[in-house]
Each structure stands twice: as C-alpha cells, then as structure tokens.
Amino acid sequence: MEDYIGRSEERQEFRRLLQKKTASLVTCQGRRRIGKSRFIHECAQEADHFLSFMGLPPREDIMKQAQLDAFADQLSQQTKAPKLPLDGWPSAFQLLASQLPASGTVVLLLDEISWMAVGDADYPGHLKTAWDTHFSKRARLVVVLCGSVSSWIEQNILNNTGFVGRCSWQFRLGPLLLTECMHFWGKRGTRISITEKLRLLAVTGGVPRYLQEINPARTAEQNIADLCFNPAGMLFNEFDSIFHDIFTRRAESYREIVRTLVAGSRSVDQISTELGRARGGTLSASLMDLAQAGFISHDIPFEPETGRSRPRDARYRLSDNYLRFYLKYVDPVKPRIIKGLLKNTALESLDAWDTIMGLQFENLVHANLNLLLAHIGLDKKLVLNAGPYVQKQTLRKKGCQIDLLIRTRRSLYIFEIKFRKHIPSTIIDETSEKVKRLKLPKGQSVRTGLIYCGELDAQIDERDDFDFLVSAEALVKID
Known about the structure:
With about 475 residues, this protein is α/β, with parallel strands linked by helices.
C-alpha cells in the first residue's frame, strides 16, 4: 500500500473487519472513477485470499445469461471450478460458496453489482438467500457489494427489508482531500504554485483516476488541453461514458438537470421552472439519483439562531467539478475540438472563467471542511451545522448569501470564499453587511473568516476585521 494515496480512515475500518472472526457484509458506493475497486483491491492485500467479480457494462441487448456466463468465466479463472453453464443466480452463488478457501481471511468483491443484476428482478433476493445460507456462515469472510449506481444499492440493499441488520459497514468514497491531491504532483510539487494546482483541481476535483493523468512537467493549461480539448483526451468523452453507464436511457434527462446548476445552486422550484417539468415525481427522483451518484449536493439551510433546518428552502449544488467544467466549456464546442481548433486554449480566455473558478474553489472548500476546522482550531465535534447559507428577503429582513456558515452552541462562523488574482478590500464591508442582515440569537458570538487564493489588498490585513484569514496554501499544507 506504499504507493496508495489517502483513504486512511476507511482503510483502518476495513482492517477492523478483517480482524473479526465472523463474516461481514459491506456496501461501497461512490461516483465512477472515484477509486472504489482500487480501494477494495488495496485493502484485500491484507487478507489471505481475494476473489473479485464484475458485472458486464450495460448495453441495449444484454441479458441475464450474459452476466451469468461472465460470472462463470471469472469464477473458473480464480478457482479450481471448471467453467460450467449456470442457469440462474442461486446456482451461481452456491457454486461460488463451494469454492471459497477453507481457511484464512477472504475478501469477496461483487463489483458493479447493478450491472450484474441486469435482467433479473429477483437478484437481490437470491443474494440475500446466499448470504443467509452460505456466506454468513463462513468465518472471517468479508463480502463487498460495490457499485457506481448508488440508487440501485440504496433501493435493493440498504432500503431492502431483507437485508436489515445484515450490513456490518456502509460507506461511500468521496473525492480525495486537498492535502492528498497534492501528492499527485510528486517531487515536482514543491516547485509548482498552489494557484496552478487549484486551476487543475477546478477541472478534476479530487477524483483519483483523473489526477493520475496529471503530467507534472506540463502546466495546468497544457494538462487541461491534453485532457479536455483533445479528442483523444480522457476527459473529452468521459461525461458521455459515465452518464451512459450509470443512467443508461435516462442519461439525456439527467444531463439537462445538471446543466441548470452550472451557473450556481438552484431550488427545486427553479430547476422545475427552467426545465418545464413538475417539481415532484420523476424530477425529485432524478435529483436524488444524481446526489447519490456523487454529482450534486443537496444543501438544506438552517436557521442561524436555532439550527432548525429549513427543508423547503433546500438547494441543489453541482458539487462535481469535472461536470461543471465539461458542460460549461467542452460540450458546447465539441465539433471544434474534434477539428483540432482548441488545443491551445488558455483558461483565462474562457467565458466567465473567474466566476466558474470561484464556484469550483467553493466546492473544494466544502469538500474539505475538516481541513478548515483543523486549521482554525475548531473541534469538529462542536459543529452543529455547516454549509452554504441563503437568507431570503422578506418585509422584515434583507436577503444575503454566505459561502460557508458554521454553527456551534456559542458561536457562528461566517466565511467568504474567494479565488481571484486580486482580492479587494471591499470584501470587508460586504462581509460586515451580511453579518448585520443575519437574525442572530442573543448571547451568541460571531466570527468572520476569508478563505482565499490570490493576492489580498493590503487593507485587509491592516484593518484586522477578519478573525481568520485562511490562504489556499495553508489549507493544503501537507503535514
């Protein structure tokens, strides 16, 4: 595991399961390319035995028998079992159980399980029966159900009454922490500015598979041109690939939903109006699917004075940096990219790049809240609420928008998040005005902070208005 980056907490939890004497059932979720399979493979190195099975990718004419044949083929390659024709999943699971090693710790991975279940509505039931009658009785066995289609796992495993009480651990892999992302620049990283690294992270986010494509010898602009503005680049066709694999026939509908979020967060009413669709039914289900897939975030505001949530004012935010960059800058000009006309595109020349970069930087900060808390010395156990905050204008109060609002029992922390070449001193008065507009409880302190990447106006330091000035360099500093 020496060359494996990040996931220390998850690896420690998996190690605990390997130390159990009884069998464990585990679910692993996360967006495509987030490193789920690689994570399980790395953890399984500490087991005595490892068996891995993957469903065939979706296609229009694929049937259950094709998945069974693929399973039989993978089983024969990893065990002494001959490749036998399988007539259904009960016999497939029974044969697999008979081939498990007689002793030692075993990790069994059923990868892209929603693909494996294609064509058989009873697959979850067959799996549950196999767990009860075979797998659960094998001591020191860890069965991992893994998939990018998180909604399938939610509906068929986690919310299935048949599996209640059977899962030892349910976890979701998210993007790597900013401190972990820094390792992908290798030894050259010390010579590359954090601003340049953030420009690249604005496109890739903390997705490990994308970060593996970084060539540290090339600039952020050159890397992005190679990946996005080149027909052969990995990220040029990535959107169509992941949306087809996860959402299949609904891919176009989901594409239109995420497109409404490119310019910023929206309420379900705003999304429904823009798309001309009813806010309930399929739209709500689609938004939930996108959130479970790790592409958007469902931010539920809270009252600063009480902490009471306001679900009616919930907003959806495009939290996946790659999706925003692709939909804003790649998708509209794909024909020109195919003709090789945009290979030398400079980021600063892109339409509204400063605004989009600000949104991308905000995503990175929200995804790294624990790093911020550690930096300002705030114990995460004390945090009662945290997230972006929008206060609607009414007859009694003025509206305001706060990039990050953190609430503890005794204090509110108001953070502005800025990514600009030069950050003017006007940010001081803008933040003070937002504090005035908030309805605050008596006896509660307010602390303000600025999380930034760029050059601060000298007055920001001189006036000493902010309690915390957190530079991007400080946030990503590797201990």
